[in-house]
TrEMBL record:
Pfam families: Terminase_6N. This is PBSX family phage terminase large subunit. InterPro entries: P-loop_NTPase (IPR027417), Phage_terminase_lsu (IPR006437), Viral_DNA_packaging_terminase (IPR052380). Gene3D superfamilies: 3.30.420.280, P-loop containing nucleotide triphosphate hydrolases.
């Protein structure tokens, strides 16, 4: 197929043709900047010129994200004739070369690559890897002219990838190319402007401006009572409940009414065992859940997966279907940020604990990695569960909020 390149992409292709790529080749920067696309083109061209009998590896946080971000796109680029893959077998064939597939979330992933001798490796979203895994991977790239190709969005300036590799690139055999969304001339201008509006705070700095910056201050600075708090309750819609379970710590529940692409938290339940000096049982919390639901049909109750005893209690009563929440904190915050920016989530004025927490929920700016201060976060957690587990798939099932 005919390839059309942006200026930065063409520069990289010229480096490949002139054999000027480095041992480590990292493309970093904003979302939708074309870095993943050109990294896969480079990977395919490079691997087609390398020995067939050698070993190659493609790795991402999970096999699912590897397929979504890379494998399907690579198959589009070169065609099924030249690239096929099997996730169950964790293997692919690219221009006849055997390529192993791994996800770094697999606890056995590091031990699996420990015995490999690799000619090449492709890494998607390197900031999501552990440094131990990455160090082990580099030690496996021991064949002559072995290369690593990687992509990432920026993270904290204290991240191991920034401090130990990017900042030391001149001391290493390493190429670092920065891509920005405005470097991609093939995106619709209206789409780019809308995408920029969907990010704010640290996520705007990282995923639009391509900056390695600390997460600090309020986590949801875009929350505004005038814009996000309503007085009216919808007459009808689809209903869900999200729960952050606590014993001594507060237990927060929210009842959501979803209409189209907007969900309103119409009522909340909030109980602090520590503040009231009364610790409730699972059965008492279940009674609170039933009262919150009233006569409404609840499609799902979304609960933190660590609340095993309470999930069992809900299931025992056979009234509600339980969904275990997707509990990735930073990615969930990112999704919730987009929902707030787009006003996909609103809050009834009666949800006073929720409104209070929005003004108190902060990043821990003393932490070396992105971390929230674990205070005033219980309604924030159950809102994140709802947005990341239910709402994002209802609003735009194909949107990749993590990139």
């Amino acid at each position: 197929m005919e390839m059309i390149y942006s200026d930065k992409q063409r520069t990289l292709m010229n480096m490949w043709r002139a054999d000027k790529l480095k041992r480590l080749n990292l493309l970093e920067g904003s979302v939708r900047s074309g870095k993943t696309w050109i990294s896969l083109v480079l990977w395919a061209f490079w691997i087609s010129c390398m020995p067939r009998e050698k070993n190659y590896l493609m790795v991402a946080k999970t096999l699912t994200s590897l397929r979504r971000n890379c494998l399907d796109l690579l198959q589009e680029l070169v065609g099924v004739k030249y690239f096929t893959y099997s996730l169950p077998k964790k293997e692919a064939r690219l221009f006849g070369r055997l390529v192993y597939l791994e996800g770094v979330n697999d606890a056995r992933a590091e031990s699996k690559i420990r015995g490999m001798t690799l000619q090449g490796a492709y890494c998607d979203e390197l900031t999501l890897f552990t440094e131990d895994f990455f160090s082990m991977l580099l030690s496996r790239l021991s064949e002559k002219k072995a290369k690593l190709f990687g992509t990432t969005n920026p993270d904290s300036p204290n991240h191991w990838l920034k401090k130990n590799y990017i900042d030391r690139k001149d001391k290493l055999d390493m190429l670092v190319e920065r891509f920005l969304i405005d470097d991609n001339p093939y995106l619709d201008k209206e789409y780019v402007e809308n995408l920029k509006k969907e990010y704010s705070g640290v996520f705007y700095d990282r995923f639009i401006k391509g900056l390695w910056v600390l997460a600090e201050g309020l986590i949801y600075p875009m929350f505004n009572e005038k814009e996000h708090v309503v007085r009216e309750v919808p007459e009808a819609g689809r209903y869900f409940i999200s729960i952050d379970y606590g014993t001594l710590n507060p237990c927060s529940m929210g009842l959501w009414c979803l209409n189209g692409k907007q969900a309103i938290r119409i009522v909340e339940y909030y109980h602090s065992g520590r503040d009231t000096q009364r610790q409730l049982t699972d059965e008492e919390y279940y009674q609170a859940l039933e009262k919150l639901a009233g006569e409404r049909y609840i499609e799902y109750v979304v609960v933190d997966p660590s609340a095993a005893s309470f999930i069992t209690c809900i299931q025992k009563h056979r009234k509600f279907r339980v969904r275990k929440a997707k509990n990735e904190v930073v990615n969930g915050i990112r999704v919730t940020t987009t929902m707030l920016q787009n006003k996909n989530i609103l809050f009834h004025e009666s949800c006073r604990n929720t409104i209070k927490e929005f003004g108190l929920y902060r990043w821990d700016d003393k932490a070396a990695e992105d971390r929230v201060i674990k205070e005033n976060d219980h309604a924030m957690d159950d809102i994140r569960y709802f947005c990341n587990t239910i709402l994002k798939d209802q609003i735009n099932p194909r949107q990749n909020y993590s990139r």
